[in-house]
Design a protein that fits this description.
This protein is mainly α and 144 residues long. It has one domain: Four Helix Bundle (Hemerythrin (Met), subunit A). Helices cover 70% and strands 4% of the residues. The protein contains 6 helices and 2 strands. Strands 1-2 form a two-stranded antiparallel sheet. The longest helix is centred in the last third of the chain and has 23 residues. It starts with a helix and ends in an 8-residue tail after the last helix.
Length: 144
Amino acid sequence: MDWKECCNKRIVKNVKPDADMVSSLVKSSRNKMESGNKLPLSEITAASKLTLAYDSLRELLEALALKRGYKIYNHECYSAFLREIVSESGKGDEFDEIRKLRNNVNYYGKEISIDESNVSIAKIKALRLFVADLVEGSMPIDCE
């Protein structure tokens, strides 16, 4: 799905940026990442750690979108947001890959190994740092 389709289907809408909500999302994102970091990685915790890291990243993306004046109502449109609004096609593709893995784990019972969890969490953390830097200095742009 591209950004235009997200807007046309009203999965994305323009909103007034909300600094308090952005701060709250950043704090919640940090808490989820720290919670995941406190869990020892094992066969039992691999999926939980992945989910916590993903949720942390998704909350930062929500903060970035909100800071730029958007409310995004599905995770797929965050990929389009990264590709087309942030102009980071590769980052959009990375998020989409992570999103699909997390969905397979959460909704379809996919087993995830310790190694796969480690690799995926490292990708999430790198993408999360990139998004965190953007949250610090982003400006609003209208949905077209």
